[in-house]
Backbone:
């Protein structure tokens, strides 16, 4: 029996090299993201500024993602990825010294913009995987790749919190060092996946070429087509998730008194769940339910977890509740009880995204031609980037007015994506020979 393509690719070393590259990149990214709300808070800012800081990354990513896609289609995935990693290293250095500079808020925004410009290479990494796997194994390979990135989600925040105790420069400088190390690793071990003969033929073709603007307009004007629907699903769900994540640290600080030194453990908790789900559960679930149905299951789990956060709060008077229970539980145990639904609600976020986003991206790679794969992966990131711009700012505004509002709105939007995905099975089934 022929070995599955994703396993063969992994054994040849290509997938593992890309996974290590993505893992190190995510460790650096998550060392700084959980600290942003606390940095903003130390400067006297609230939820709106935190949302804008998160969105500034997405603004730069929104503008650069199609450019990275075209560049990788024309010149190869590897050069595009290396340039993006270099931009991230510069951003981390700026972040490390931002609070010591004359206008710290300006430099926090600058670091996010530079990092977002490098972050447009997400579409390049996705195209890397799509180049090297068969359609049937693509979602599983993307799941393994995202498992590696979520291992970075689990480790990065803890490293960020620990190095923050050594000084404000610690997290940024360590993240920059990791990024330089990652560039050296990718330069040495990551080989080109793009068919450069096809790329050369495409460059030699003097006919009209697809442009990012045309592809974006096509998604808007032909929203009923499968590729457009998948891009909308990705963008709306990603925006809702990103908006909630941008407010999660403030939510935990306001309701559960979490600090900059302890926030890393919450992100590590979600990262571990995401890694285990994508590495051990995603593949069997795809085999059982298929990509289209599993993406809807993931959206349902994501919406449930987000909605539950709106209603989860600590008990104001544990001693009084313990007395009402007749002393069956001590006040300390009663005070701990709200953390159980909080842990379950937070766990549903990485579980839902693990089932949703790899499946949606894999389905998108099925319904577009290989010569335009980088372009449309970039367009997907453009729409996702626009959502990452708008949602954190909107959610920060709503959070400052009434804490549950952003979580309830996000849950409703994710439910809407389930409706958008109905009937997608007919477009992604393998064609009969």
Residues:
């Amino acid at each position: 029996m022929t070995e599955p393509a994703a396993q063969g690719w992994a054994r040849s070393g290509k997938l593992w090299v890309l996974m290590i590259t993505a893992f190190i990149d995510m460790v650096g990214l998550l060392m700084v993201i959980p600290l942003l709300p606390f940095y903003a808070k130390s400067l006297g800012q609230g939820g709106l500024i935190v949302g804008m800081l998160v969105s500034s990354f997405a603004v730069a990513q929104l503008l650069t993602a199609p450019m990275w896609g075209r560049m990788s289609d024309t010149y190869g995935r590897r050069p595009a990825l290396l340039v993006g990693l270099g931009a991230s290293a510069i951003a981390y250095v700026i972040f490390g010294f931002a609070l010591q500079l004359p206008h710290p808020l300006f430099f926090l925004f600058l670091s996010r913009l530079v990092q977002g410009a490098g972050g447009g290479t997400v579409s390049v990494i996705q195209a890397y995987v799509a180049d090297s796997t068969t359609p049937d194994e693509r979602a599983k390979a993307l799941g393994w790749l995202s498992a590696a990135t979520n291992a970075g989600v689990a480790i990065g925040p803890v490293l960020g919190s620990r190095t923050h105790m050594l000084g404000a420069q610690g997290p940024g400088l360590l993240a920059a060092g990791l990024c330089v190390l990652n560039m050296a690793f990718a330069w040495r071990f990551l080989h080109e996946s793009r068919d450069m003969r096809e790329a050369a033929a495409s460059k030699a073709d003097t006919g009209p070429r697809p442009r990012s603007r045309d592809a974006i307009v096509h998604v808007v004007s032909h929203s009923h087509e499968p590729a457009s629907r998948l891009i909308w699903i990705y963008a709306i769900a990603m925006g809702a998730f990103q908006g909630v994540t941008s407010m999660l640290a403030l939510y935990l600080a306001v309701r559960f008194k979490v600090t900059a030194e302890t926030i890393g453990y919450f992100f590590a908790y979600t990262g571990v769940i995401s890694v285990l789900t994508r590495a051990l559960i995603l593949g069997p679930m795809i085999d059982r339910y298929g990509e289209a149905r599993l993406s809807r299951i993931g959206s349902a789990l994501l919406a449930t977890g987000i909605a539950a956060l709106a209603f989860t709060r600590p008990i104001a008077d544990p001693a009084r509740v313990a007395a009402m229970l007749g002393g069956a539980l001590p006040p300390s145990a009663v005070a701990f009880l709200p953390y159980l639904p909080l842990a379950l609600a937070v766990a549903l976020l990485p579980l839902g995204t693990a089932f949703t986003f790899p499946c949606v991206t894999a389905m998108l790679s099925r319904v577009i031609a290989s010569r335009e794969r980088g372009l449309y992966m970039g367009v997907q990131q453009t729409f996702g980037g626009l959502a990452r711009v708008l949602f954190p700012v909107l959610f920060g505004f709503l959070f400052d007015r009434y804490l549950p509002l952003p979580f309830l709105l996000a849950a409703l939007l994710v439910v809407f994506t389930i409706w958008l995905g109905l009937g997608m099975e007919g477009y992604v089934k393998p064609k009969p020979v």
Q: What stands out?
A: The two ends are 19 Å apart (CA to CA).
